[in-house]
Amino acid sequence: MHLPSPADRSADRQPAGLWADLLAGLAVAGVLLPEAVAYAAIAQVPTTHALLAALAGLCVYPLLGSSRFAIAAPTSSAAAVFGSAVLSGGPQMGLALVGLTGALFLLAGLLRAEFLGAFISRPVLRGFAWALAVTIVLKQVPHVLGVHAPAANIIPLLGQLATEASRLHHPSLVWGIGALALWLLLHHTPQRWIWLPPSLIVLAWGVMLSVALKPEAQGMQLVGQIEWQALSLQLPKLSIEHWLSAVEIAPALLLILFAESWGSVRSLALQQGEEVDARRELLALGAANGISALLQGLPVGAGFSAAAANQSAGARSKWAGVAAALALALLLWLARPALALLPVPVVAAVVIAILLHNLWPRSVLGSLHLRSDTWLALVAAAGVLGFGVLFGMLLAVGLSIALALKRFADPVVVELGRLPNTRDFVNVARHAGAQTLPGILIMRPDEPLFFANAEAVFKRVADRVRQAGAHTAILSLEMSDDLDSTALEAIGELSRTLNAQNCQLMLARIKDPARLGLERSGLNSDGRPGARLFWSVDDAVSAA
After folding, report:
1. What is the pTM of this model?
2. The pLDDT value given to residue 151
Protein backbone atom coordinates (compact mmCIF):
# COMPACT_ATOMS: atom_id res chain seq x y z
CA MET A 1 0.00 0.00 0.00
CA HIS A 2 1.30 3.46 -0.85
CA LEU A 3 0.81 6.48 1.38
CA PRO A 4 1.78 9.92 0.08
CA SER A 5 5.14 10.86 1.49
CA PRO A 6 6.00 14.11 3.29
CA ALA A 7 7.15 17.05 1.23
CA ASP A 8 10.43 16.58 -0.61
CA ARG A 9 13.09 18.99 0.63
CA SER A 10 15.74 20.25 -1.74
CA ALA A 11 19.26 19.03 -1.04
CA ASP A 12 20.59 22.41 0.02
CA ARG A 13 17.87 22.76 2.65
CA GLN A 14 18.19 19.34 4.22
CA PRO A 15 19.83 19.27 7.65
CA ALA A 16 22.66 16.85 8.20
CA GLY A 17 23.50 14.19 10.72
CA LEU A 18 21.50 13.33 13.80
CA TRP A 19 19.21 16.33 13.49
CA ALA A 20 18.11 15.11 10.03
CA ASP A 21 17.33 11.69 11.48
CA LEU A 22 15.29 13.25 14.28
CA LEU A 23 13.20 15.27 11.83
CA ALA A 24 12.73 12.23 9.59
CA GLY A 25 11.67 10.19 12.62
CA LEU A 26 8.96 12.74 13.42
CA ALA A 27 7.68 12.54 9.85
CA VAL A 28 7.65 8.73 9.97
CA ALA A 29 5.78 8.76 13.29
CA GLY A 30 3.22 11.05 11.68
CA VAL A 31 2.68 8.41 8.99
CA LEU A 32 2.67 5.40 11.31
CA LEU A 33 0.19 6.72 13.87
CA PRO A 34 -2.79 7.04 11.49
CA GLU A 35 -1.72 3.83 9.75
CA ALA A 36 -1.76 1.99 13.09
CA VAL A 37 -5.30 3.18 13.81
CA ALA A 38 -6.41 2.15 10.32
CA TYR A 39 -4.64 -1.22 10.24
CA ALA A 40 -5.95 -2.18 13.66
CA ALA A 41 -9.44 -1.64 12.28
CA ILE A 42 -8.60 -3.84 9.28
CA ALA A 43 -7.17 -6.52 11.59
CA GLN A 44 -10.25 -6.28 13.83
CA VAL A 45 -8.25 -5.82 17.04
CA PRO A 46 -7.73 -2.87 19.42
CA THR A 47 -5.37 -0.14 18.19
CA THR A 48 -2.80 -1.00 20.86
CA HIS A 49 -1.88 -4.21 18.97
CA ALA A 50 -0.85 -2.21 15.89
CA LEU A 51 1.01 0.37 17.97
CA LEU A 52 2.98 -2.29 19.85
CA ALA A 53 3.89 -3.93 16.55
CA ALA A 54 5.11 -0.60 15.16
CA LEU A 55 7.27 0.02 18.24
CA ALA A 56 8.71 -3.52 18.05
CA GLY A 57 9.57 -3.14 14.37
CA LEU A 58 11.09 0.33 14.79
CA CYS A 59 13.34 -0.80 17.65
CA VAL A 60 14.40 -4.21 16.29
CA TYR A 61 14.97 -3.54 12.58
CA PRO A 62 17.89 -1.06 13.01
CA LEU A 63 19.83 -3.75 14.90
CA LEU A 64 19.72 -6.37 12.12
CA GLY A 65 18.40 -4.82 8.91
CA SER A 66 20.62 -3.70 6.05
CA SER A 67 18.67 -0.68 4.73
CA ARG A 68 19.00 2.76 6.23
CA PHE A 69 15.55 3.77 4.95
CA ALA A 70 13.40 0.71 5.67
CA ILE A 71 10.80 0.98 8.44
CA ALA A 72 9.42 -2.27 9.88
CA ALA A 73 5.80 -1.74 10.89
CA PRO A 74 2.34 -3.22 10.22
CA THR A 75 1.31 -3.24 6.56
CA SER A 76 -2.11 -3.35 4.93
CA SER A 77 -1.65 -6.84 3.47
CA ALA A 78 -0.36 -8.26 6.76
CA ALA A 79 -3.23 -6.63 8.69
CA ALA A 80 -5.76 -8.12 6.28
CA VAL A 81 -4.29 -11.61 6.63
CA PHE A 82 -4.22 -11.19 10.42
CA GLY A 83 -7.88 -10.15 10.31
CA SER A 84 -8.76 -13.27 8.33
CA ALA A 85 -6.98 -15.41 10.91
CA VAL A 86 -8.91 -13.63 13.67
CA LEU A 87 -12.18 -14.52 11.94
CA SER A 88 -11.07 -18.15 11.72
CA GLY A 89 -9.81 -18.66 15.28
CA GLY A 90 -9.97 -15.43 17.26
CA PRO A 91 -7.22 -12.93 18.18
CA GLN A 92 -5.03 -15.63 19.73
CA MET A 93 -4.79 -17.42 16.39
CA GLY A 94 -3.68 -14.19 14.76
CA LEU A 95 -0.97 -13.73 17.37
CA ALA A 96 0.16 -17.35 16.90
CA LEU A 97 0.41 -16.64 13.16
CA VAL A 98 2.70 -13.68 13.85
CA GLY A 99 5.00 -15.76 16.07
CA LEU A 100 5.19 -18.65 13.60
CA THR A 101 5.92 -16.27 10.74
CA GLY A 102 8.72 -14.69 12.75
CA ALA A 103 10.20 -18.13 13.51
CA LEU A 104 10.07 -19.05 9.83
CA PHE A 105 11.81 -15.79 8.90
CA LEU A 106 14.62 -16.57 11.34
CA LEU A 107 14.90 -20.15 10.07
CA ALA A 108 15.01 -18.93 6.47
CA GLY A 109 17.75 -16.45 7.36
CA LEU A 110 19.83 -19.07 9.16
CA LEU A 111 19.44 -21.46 6.20
CA ARG A 112 20.28 -18.68 3.72
CA ALA A 113 16.95 -19.08 1.98
CA GLU A 114 16.72 -15.50 0.73
CA PHE A 115 15.56 -16.81 -2.66
CA LEU A 116 12.09 -17.43 -1.16
CA GLY A 117 10.72 -14.08 -2.25
CA ALA A 118 11.31 -15.02 -5.88
CA PHE A 119 8.69 -17.77 -5.66
CA ILE A 120 5.88 -15.22 -5.95
CA SER A 121 5.73 -13.87 -9.49
CA ARG A 122 5.08 -10.18 -10.13
CA PRO A 123 1.72 -10.79 -11.86
CA VAL A 124 0.51 -12.68 -8.78
CA LEU A 125 1.67 -9.86 -6.50
CA ARG A 126 -0.09 -7.28 -8.69
CA GLY A 127 -3.36 -9.20 -8.71
CA PHE A 128 -3.19 -9.89 -4.98
CA ALA A 129 -2.38 -6.26 -4.13
CA TRP A 130 -5.19 -4.86 -6.27
CA ALA A 131 -7.81 -7.26 -4.92
CA LEU A 132 -6.57 -6.62 -1.38
CA ALA A 133 -7.02 -2.87 -1.85
CA VAL A 134 -10.57 -3.40 -3.16
CA THR A 135 -11.36 -5.71 -0.24
CA ILE A 136 -10.06 -3.30 2.39
CA VAL A 137 -11.90 -0.33 0.88
CA LEU A 138 -15.21 -2.21 0.67
CA LYS A 139 -14.86 -3.32 4.29
CA GLN A 140 -14.60 0.35 5.32
CA VAL A 141 -17.78 1.34 3.51
CA PRO A 142 -20.11 0.09 6.31
CA HIS A 143 -18.25 2.32 8.80
CA VAL A 144 -18.77 5.36 6.55
CA LEU A 145 -22.45 4.50 6.08
CA GLY A 146 -22.92 3.75 9.77
CA VAL A 147 -24.48 0.34 9.10
CA HIS A 148 -23.78 -3.17 10.37
CA ALA A 149 -22.24 -5.42 7.69
CA PRO A 150 -19.76 -7.83 9.32
CA ALA A 151 -19.30 -10.31 6.43
CA ALA A 152 -15.68 -11.32 5.85
CA ASN A 153 -15.89 -11.99 2.09
CA ILE A 154 -16.82 -9.53 -0.62
CA ILE A 155 -19.91 -11.17 -2.11
CA PRO A 156 -21.76 -11.58 1.23
CA LEU A 157 -20.59 -8.09 2.22
CA LEU A 158 -22.15 -6.55 -0.91
CA GLY A 159 -25.38 -8.39 -0.12
CA GLN A 160 -25.42 -7.05 3.44
CA LEU A 161 -24.73 -3.50 2.19
CA ALA A 162 -27.66 -3.75 -0.20
CA THR A 163 -29.90 -4.95 2.64
CA GLU A 164 -28.74 -2.22 5.04
CA ALA A 165 -28.85 0.64 2.50
CA SER A 166 -32.19 1.90 3.83
CA ARG A 167 -30.79 2.12 7.36
CA LEU A 168 -27.71 4.25 6.67
CA HIS A 169 -26.69 6.71 9.39
CA HIS A 170 -26.67 10.16 7.81
CA PRO A 171 -24.32 11.88 10.31
CA SER A 172 -21.72 9.12 9.76
CA LEU A 173 -22.05 9.52 6.00
CA VAL A 174 -21.56 13.31 6.22
CA TRP A 175 -18.46 12.97 8.43
CA GLY A 176 -16.99 10.23 6.25
CA ILE A 177 -17.48 12.07 2.98
CA GLY A 178 -16.19 15.29 4.54
CA ALA A 179 -13.03 13.57 5.80
CA LEU A 180 -12.46 11.97 2.38
CA ALA A 181 -12.92 15.32 0.60
CA LEU A 182 -10.48 17.03 2.98
CA TRP A 183 -7.89 14.30 2.46
CA LEU A 184 -8.15 14.62 -1.32
CA LEU A 185 -7.86 18.41 -1.09
CA LEU A 186 -4.72 18.17 1.05
CA HIS A 187 -3.29 15.46 -1.19
CA HIS A 188 -3.54 17.71 -4.25
CA THR A 189 -2.27 20.80 -2.45
CA PRO A 190 1.35 21.72 -3.40
CA GLN A 191 3.65 19.91 -1.00
CA ARG A 192 5.65 23.00 -0.14
CA TRP A 193 2.57 24.28 1.74
CA ILE A 194 2.00 21.11 3.80
CA TRP A 195 4.67 19.53 5.98
CA LEU A 196 2.53 16.84 7.60
CA PRO A 197 0.93 13.77 6.01
CA PRO A 198 -2.70 14.43 4.93
CA SER A 199 -3.85 11.45 6.99
CA LEU A 200 -2.47 12.96 10.21
CA ILE A 201 -4.08 16.33 9.45
CA VAL A 202 -7.48 14.78 8.72
CA LEU A 203 -7.39 12.73 11.93
CA ALA A 204 -6.40 15.84 13.92
CA TRP A 205 -9.36 17.77 12.47
CA GLY A 206 -11.58 14.80 13.27
CA VAL A 207 -10.55 14.96 16.91
CA MET A 208 -11.05 18.74 17.15
CA LEU A 209 -14.49 18.61 15.52
CA SER A 210 -15.43 15.68 17.74
CA VAL A 211 -14.59 17.76 20.83
CA ALA A 212 -16.67 20.67 19.55
CA LEU A 213 -19.69 18.87 18.03
CA LYS A 214 -20.03 15.75 20.24
CA PRO A 215 -20.98 13.36 17.37
CA GLU A 216 -21.45 10.46 19.78
CA ALA A 217 -24.66 12.18 20.89
CA GLN A 218 -25.99 11.56 17.36
CA GLY A 219 -25.20 7.86 17.60
CA MET A 220 -21.84 7.98 15.84
CA GLN A 221 -19.24 5.40 16.87
CA LEU A 222 -15.91 6.64 18.25
CA VAL A 223 -12.56 4.82 18.37
CA GLY A 224 -12.77 4.78 22.16
CA GLN A 225 -10.16 4.73 24.85
CA ILE A 226 -6.90 3.02 23.88
CA GLU A 227 -6.00 0.95 26.89
CA TRP A 228 -2.21 0.87 27.05
CA GLN A 229 -1.29 -2.54 28.36
CA ALA A 230 1.89 -3.17 30.27
CA LEU A 231 4.66 -4.69 28.15
CA SER A 232 4.62 -8.40 28.95
CA LEU A 233 5.87 -11.39 27.00
CA GLN A 234 3.09 -13.92 26.46
CA LEU A 235 2.55 -16.99 24.30
CA PRO A 236 -0.83 -17.45 22.56
CA LYS A 237 -3.23 -19.86 24.24
CA LEU A 238 -4.70 -22.01 21.45
CA SER A 239 -6.02 -25.46 20.78
CA ILE A 240 -3.96 -27.88 18.71
CA GLU A 241 -6.40 -27.45 15.83
CA HIS A 242 -5.88 -23.69 15.70
CA TRP A 243 -2.11 -24.05 16.02
CA LEU A 244 -2.16 -26.38 13.01
CA SER A 245 -4.25 -23.87 11.06
CA ALA A 246 -1.74 -21.13 11.87
CA VAL A 247 1.11 -23.41 10.77
CA GLU A 248 -0.59 -23.83 7.39
CA ILE A 249 -0.94 -20.10 6.85
CA ALA A 250 2.45 -18.91 8.16
CA PRO A 251 4.59 -19.95 5.12
CA ALA A 252 2.30 -18.04 2.77
CA LEU A 253 2.37 -14.95 4.99
CA LEU A 254 6.16 -15.18 5.10
CA LEU A 255 6.36 -15.18 1.28
CA ILE A 256 3.95 -12.25 0.96
CA LEU A 257 5.71 -10.18 3.64
CA PHE A 258 9.18 -10.90 2.31
CA ALA A 259 8.23 -10.19 -1.30
CA GLU A 260 6.63 -6.88 -0.26
CA SER A 261 9.47 -5.92 2.08
CA TRP A 262 12.32 -6.94 -0.21
CA GLY A 263 10.64 -5.13 -3.10
CA SER A 264 10.49 -1.83 -1.21
CA VAL A 265 13.96 -2.21 0.33
CA ARG A 266 15.54 -3.14 -2.99
CA SER A 267 13.83 -0.36 -4.97
CA LEU A 268 14.97 2.34 -2.52
CA ALA A 269 18.50 0.91 -2.47
CA LEU A 270 18.68 1.03 -6.27
CA GLN A 271 17.58 4.67 -6.25
CA GLN A 272 20.45 5.53 -3.90
CA GLY A 273 23.07 3.26 -5.47
CA GLU A 274 23.37 1.28 -2.23
CA GLU A 275 23.58 -2.43 -1.46
CA VAL A 276 21.24 -4.38 0.80
CA ASP A 277 21.53 -7.93 2.13
CA ALA A 278 18.51 -10.23 1.70
CA ARG A 279 19.68 -12.56 4.48
CA ARG A 280 19.92 -9.72 6.98
CA GLU A 281 16.41 -8.62 5.95
CA LEU A 282 15.10 -12.12 6.72
CA LEU A 283 16.72 -12.09 10.15
CA ALA A 284 15.51 -8.56 10.91
CA LEU A 285 11.92 -9.35 9.93
CA GLY A 286 12.08 -12.61 11.90
CA ALA A 287 13.24 -10.90 15.07
CA ALA A 288 10.75 -8.03 14.66
CA ASN A 289 7.80 -10.38 14.15
CA GLY A 290 8.93 -12.60 17.02
CA ILE A 291 9.07 -9.68 19.45
CA SER A 292 5.78 -8.32 18.09
CA ALA A 293 4.09 -11.68 18.71
CA LEU A 294 5.33 -11.81 22.30
CA LEU A 295 3.99 -8.27 22.83
CA GLN A 296 0.61 -9.24 21.28
CA GLY A 297 1.27 -7.13 18.16
CA LEU A 298 0.37 -7.42 14.47
CA PRO A 299 2.76 -8.84 11.85
CA VAL A 300 5.30 -6.34 10.54
CA GLY A 301 7.08 -5.82 7.26
CA ALA A 302 9.14 -3.13 5.53
CA GLY A 303 6.25 -1.51 3.66
CA PHE A 304 6.88 1.08 0.97
CA SER A 305 4.83 3.94 2.43
CA ALA A 306 6.81 4.44 5.65
CA ALA A 307 10.16 3.72 3.95
CA ALA A 308 9.44 6.28 1.22
CA ALA A 309 8.38 8.82 3.85
CA ASN A 310 11.62 8.19 5.73
CA GLN A 311 13.74 8.69 2.62
CA SER A 312 11.96 11.80 1.39
CA ALA A 313 12.07 13.35 4.87
CA GLY A 314 15.89 13.34 4.68
CA ALA A 315 16.90 10.36 6.84
CA ARG A 316 20.66 9.76 6.96
CA SER A 317 20.89 6.52 8.95
CA LYS A 318 18.94 3.87 10.85
CA TRP A 319 18.71 6.29 13.77
CA ALA A 320 15.68 7.78 12.01
CA GLY A 321 13.77 4.59 12.86
CA VAL A 322 14.78 4.86 16.50
CA ALA A 323 13.71 8.52 16.50
CA ALA A 324 10.36 7.47 15.00
CA ALA A 325 9.90 4.97 17.84
CA LEU A 326 10.56 7.67 20.43
CA ALA A 327 8.22 10.12 18.69
CA LEU A 328 5.49 7.49 18.40
CA ALA A 329 5.86 6.61 22.08
CA LEU A 330 5.52 10.30 23.01
CA LEU A 331 2.42 10.65 20.83
CA LEU A 332 0.88 7.64 22.55
CA TRP A 333 1.75 9.01 25.96
CA LEU A 334 0.30 12.45 25.26
CA ALA A 335 -2.38 11.89 22.60
CA ARG A 336 -4.26 8.75 23.67
CA PRO A 337 -7.20 10.70 25.14
CA ALA A 338 -7.48 12.60 21.85
CA LEU A 339 -7.37 9.42 19.75
CA ALA A 340 -10.26 8.04 21.78
CA LEU A 341 -12.45 10.87 20.42
CA LEU A 342 -11.83 9.98 16.77
CA PRO A 343 -15.08 9.20 14.92
CA VAL A 344 -14.89 5.79 13.23
CA PRO A 345 -16.25 7.17 9.89
CA VAL A 346 -13.25 9.54 9.76
CA VAL A 347 -10.80 6.68 10.29
CA ALA A 348 -12.59 4.63 7.62
CA ALA A 349 -12.43 7.58 5.21
CA VAL A 350 -8.67 7.88 5.77
CA VAL A 351 -8.21 4.18 4.98
CA ILE A 352 -10.26 4.56 1.79
CA ALA A 353 -8.31 7.67 0.78
CA ILE A 354 -4.95 5.97 1.31
CA LEU A 355 -5.95 3.12 -1.01
CA LEU A 356 -8.04 5.10 -3.46
CA HIS A 357 -5.35 5.31 -6.14
CA ASN A 358 -4.94 1.51 -6.02
CA LEU A 359 -8.55 0.79 -6.98
CA TRP A 360 -8.01 1.23 -10.70
CA PRO A 361 -6.33 -2.04 -11.83
CA ARG A 362 -3.83 -0.29 -14.08
CA SER A 363 -0.91 -2.49 -13.03
CA VAL A 364 -2.99 -5.65 -13.51
CA LEU A 365 -4.48 -4.78 -16.90
CA GLY A 366 -1.39 -2.98 -18.20
CA SER A 367 0.74 -6.12 -18.23
CA LEU A 368 -1.78 -8.44 -19.92
CA HIS A 369 -0.44 -7.55 -23.37
CA LEU A 370 2.80 -9.28 -22.39
CA ARG A 371 0.84 -12.59 -22.23
CA SER A 372 3.08 -15.34 -20.82
CA ASP A 373 2.08 -15.77 -17.14
CA THR A 374 0.31 -12.40 -16.73
CA TRP A 375 -3.08 -14.19 -16.57
CA LEU A 376 -2.06 -15.21 -13.03
CA ALA A 377 -2.82 -11.64 -11.91
CA LEU A 378 -6.49 -12.10 -12.80
CA VAL A 379 -6.63 -15.51 -11.10
CA ALA A 380 -5.05 -14.17 -7.89
CA ALA A 381 -7.41 -11.17 -7.87
CA ALA A 382 -10.45 -13.40 -8.44
CA GLY A 383 -9.34 -15.69 -5.60
CA VAL A 384 -9.12 -12.83 -3.12
CA LEU A 385 -12.40 -11.21 -4.20
CA GLY A 386 -14.33 -14.46 -4.45
CA PHE A 387 -13.02 -16.46 -1.50
CA GLY A 388 -11.39 -13.99 0.89
CA VAL A 389 -7.91 -12.67 1.64
CA LEU A 390 -6.67 -15.86 3.29
CA PHE A 391 -7.65 -18.24 0.50
CA GLY A 392 -6.64 -15.72 -2.13
CA MET A 393 -3.19 -15.39 -0.60
CA LEU A 394 -2.71 -19.16 -0.45
CA LEU A 395 -3.95 -19.47 -4.03
CA ALA A 396 -1.54 -16.77 -5.21
CA VAL A 397 1.45 -18.40 -3.53
CA GLY A 398 0.43 -21.86 -4.72
CA LEU A 399 0.02 -20.66 -8.31
CA SER A 400 3.46 -19.05 -8.33
CA ILE A 401 5.16 -22.18 -6.99
CA ALA A 402 3.16 -24.49 -9.28
CA LEU A 403 4.08 -22.43 -12.33
CA ALA A 404 7.77 -22.48 -11.40
CA LEU A 405 7.70 -26.26 -10.87
CA LYS A 406 5.86 -26.79 -14.16
CA ARG A 407 8.44 -24.80 -16.08
CA PHE A 408 11.36 -26.64 -14.53
CA ALA A 409 9.74 -30.05 -14.80
CA ASP A 410 8.64 -29.61 -18.44
CA PRO A 411 11.40 -27.61 -20.15
CA VAL A 412 11.53 -26.72 -23.84
CA VAL A 413 14.13 -28.68 -25.83
CA VAL A 414 15.19 -26.89 -29.03
CA GLU A 415 17.23 -27.98 -32.05
CA LEU A 416 20.23 -25.84 -32.93
CA GLY A 417 21.78 -24.96 -36.27
CA ARG A 418 24.82 -22.96 -37.37
CA LEU A 419 24.49 -19.39 -38.60
CA PRO A 420 26.25 -19.12 -41.98
CA ASN A 421 29.92 -18.09 -41.87
CA THR A 422 29.99 -18.08 -38.03
CA ARG A 423 30.70 -20.41 -35.14
CA ASP A 424 27.36 -19.53 -33.54
CA PHE A 425 24.57 -22.09 -33.06
CA VAL A 426 20.99 -20.88 -32.58
CA ASN A 427 17.42 -22.22 -32.44
CA VAL A 428 16.51 -23.30 -35.98
CA ALA A 429 12.81 -22.67 -35.31
CA ARG A 430 13.46 -18.97 -34.67
CA HIS A 431 16.29 -18.28 -37.12
CA ALA A 432 15.43 -19.11 -40.73
CA GLY A 433 19.06 -18.88 -41.85
CA ALA A 434 20.39 -21.41 -39.32
CA GLN A 435 21.71 -24.54 -41.03
CA THR A 436 21.56 -28.08 -39.66
CA LEU A 437 24.48 -30.44 -40.31
CA PRO A 438 24.04 -33.78 -42.11
CA GLY A 439 24.09 -36.70 -39.69
CA ILE A 440 24.57 -34.44 -36.65
CA LEU A 441 21.69 -33.50 -34.33
CA ILE A 442 22.34 -30.62 -31.91
CA MET A 443 19.79 -30.06 -29.10
CA ARG A 444 19.57 -27.80 -26.04
CA PRO A 445 17.25 -27.94 -22.98
CA ASP A 446 16.17 -24.39 -22.17
CA GLU A 447 15.87 -25.04 -18.40
CA PRO A 448 18.36 -26.49 -15.89
CA LEU A 449 18.32 -30.29 -15.72
CA PHE A 450 17.39 -31.89 -12.39
CA PHE A 451 15.63 -34.98 -11.07
CA ALA A 452 12.13 -33.84 -12.10
CA ASN A 453 12.84 -33.22 -15.79
CA ALA A 454 16.01 -35.09 -16.81
CA GLU A 455 14.37 -38.34 -17.91
CA ALA A 456 11.67 -36.53 -19.93
CA VAL A 457 14.28 -34.35 -21.67
CA PHE A 458 16.49 -37.27 -22.63
CA LYS A 459 13.50 -39.25 -23.92
CA ARG A 460 12.74 -36.38 -26.30
CA VAL A 461 16.37 -36.33 -27.43
CA ALA A 462 16.37 -40.10 -28.06
CA ASP A 463 13.09 -39.89 -30.00
CA ARG A 464 14.41 -37.05 -32.16
CA VAL A 465 17.66 -38.91 -32.85
CA ARG A 466 15.65 -41.92 -33.98
CA GLN A 467 13.56 -39.73 -36.31
CA ALA A 468 16.57 -37.93 -37.78
CA GLY A 469 18.74 -41.05 -38.15
CA ALA A 470 21.75 -39.08 -36.87
CA HIS A 471 25.13 -40.71 -36.24
CA THR A 472 26.08 -38.05 -33.65
CA ALA A 473 23.91 -36.27 -31.05
CA ILE A 474 25.32 -33.15 -29.41
CA LEU A 475 23.57 -31.99 -26.24
CA SER A 476 24.28 -28.39 -25.19
CA LEU A 477 23.95 -28.12 -21.39
CA GLU A 478 24.69 -24.42 -20.99
CA MET A 479 21.57 -23.90 -18.84
CA SER A 480 22.67 -26.38 -16.16
CA ASP A 481 25.08 -25.04 -13.54
CA ASP A 482 25.24 -28.45 -11.87
CA LEU A 483 23.74 -31.93 -12.30
CA ASP A 484 22.20 -34.03 -9.56
CA SER A 485 22.58 -37.81 -9.36
CA THR A 486 19.33 -38.47 -11.24
CA ALA A 487 20.42 -36.30 -14.15
CA LEU A 488 23.88 -37.94 -14.22
CA GLU A 489 22.41 -41.44 -14.29
CA ALA A 490 19.91 -40.40 -16.97
CA ILE A 491 22.75 -39.09 -19.16
CA GLY A 492 24.50 -42.45 -18.85
CA GLU A 493 21.29 -44.22 -19.85
CA LEU A 494 20.85 -41.89 -22.84
CA SER A 495 24.42 -42.58 -23.94
CA ARG A 496 23.83 -46.35 -23.85
CA THR A 497 20.48 -45.99 -25.67
CA LEU A 498 22.11 -43.96 -28.45
CA ASN A 499 25.04 -46.37 -28.70
CA ALA A 500 22.53 -49.14 -29.38
CA GLN A 501 21.28 -47.01 -32.30
CA ASN A 502 24.87 -46.52 -33.62
CA CYS A 503 24.79 -42.90 -32.50
CA GLN A 504 27.47 -41.23 -30.39
CA LEU A 505 26.49 -38.75 -27.63
CA MET A 506 28.57 -35.61 -27.13
CA LEU A 507 28.03 -33.03 -24.39
CA ALA A 508 28.90 -29.36 -25.01
CA ARG A 509 29.11 -26.16 -22.96
CA ILE A 510 29.57 -28.06 -19.72
CA LYS A 511 30.19 -25.89 -16.66
CA ASP A 512 32.81 -26.90 -14.13
CA PRO A 513 30.54 -28.33 -11.34
CA ALA A 514 28.61 -30.38 -13.91
CA ARG A 515 31.85 -31.47 -15.62
CA LEU A 516 33.22 -32.84 -12.34
CA GLY A 517 30.06 -34.86 -11.80
CA LEU A 518 30.16 -36.24 -15.35
CA GLU A 519 33.80 -37.22 -15.02
CA ARG A 520 33.10 -39.00 -11.72
CA SER A 521 30.34 -40.89 -13.53
CA GLY A 522 32.72 -42.07 -16.27
CA LEU A 523 31.24 -39.77 -18.92
CA ASN A 524 34.62 -38.26 -19.71
CA SER A 525 36.78 -37.18 -22.63
CA ASP A 526 37.99 -40.75 -23.24
CA GLY A 527 34.56 -41.66 -24.55
CA ARG A 528 33.41 -44.12 -21.87
CA PRO A 529 30.59 -45.12 -22.04
CA GLY A 530 30.14 -43.18 -25.28
CA ALA A 531 29.81 -39.52 -24.26
CA ARG A 532 32.49 -36.87 -24.66
CA LEU A 533 32.70 -33.43 -23.05
CA PHE A 534 33.44 -30.18 -24.92
CA TRP A 535 33.67 -26.55 -23.93
CA SER A 536 31.67 -25.34 -26.95
CA VAL A 537 29.18 -26.65 -29.49
CA ASP A 538 31.59 -25.75 -32.30
CA ASP A 539 34.33 -27.92 -30.72
CA ALA A 540 31.90 -30.83 -30.53
CA VAL A 541 30.85 -30.37 -34.16
CA SER A 542 34.49 -30.30 -35.26
CA ALA A 543 35.16 -33.55 -33.37
CA ALA A 544 32.07 -35.16 -34.88
Report:
1. 0.68
2. 76
